[in-house]
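Example record

The entry below shows one chain as it appears in the dataset: sequence first, then structure tokens.
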Amino acid sequence: MSAREREKAEASPESIVDEYLRNLAAYGNVILRSRFAEDALAIAVLRGVRQYVLVGAGFDSFALRRPSFAHEVAVYEVDHPATQGLKLRRLAECGVAAPLSTSFVAADLGKEDLAGALSRTPFRSDELTFFSWLGVSMYLTRDANQAALRAIARCGAPGSELVFTYLDQAVFEPSSESKGFAALRNTVASVSEPFVSGFDPRTLREELREVGLELVQDLDGPELVRSYDSGGINRLESTSASHIAVARVV
């Protein structure tokens, strides 16, 4: 048995899973966007924010590993009933109790607006709120994205903030599509979740103003990597087509 084979045989299940995840094309983006959003939330809490709404929460784990700065923050996870149901079932199957401090809001936002979904919870639209909308916009049409941003802006009191991810619209042009992005695009399309649209970073500020938001910050993938893994210790990678932005309700 070679040294490499021996290392694999002796590897712990955790290290095997970790290595597998690190080799996925989307791994860096998922790690970076979550860390950035939670760092922004920590700053917002210092400003008095006590409500955190995850729009399209998916399998986000924030509510399960709630950091000390968020002990007094009410958390609302809004997601499609099918996805949220699967998440809650898997937690139960793993013996993990759903946190009582989190409101799980099952809603198909294609048929119901965000305000209507949140009206079934103790959420207060007159209080400062922090919203995250991660890994969703690229799967929606331009009109659907504008409607979602407008709905978020209407739910938050002035001064509330939103962190969201998007793809640079330029990558949808055949002449500028990289091999790496093309491969990722084909992969997500093969599981019936194709990338549909993005935003133009040059006009994003104006588009946000149209829906009641003010752009605060916009970073691309390499800028995020330099912020969190400049030495390459964690082998995080992200493309310039991937963006994360912070916007404020005006």
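Notes for this example: The first strand starts at residue 51 and ends at 55. Residues 225 and 232 are 8 Å apart (CA to CA).
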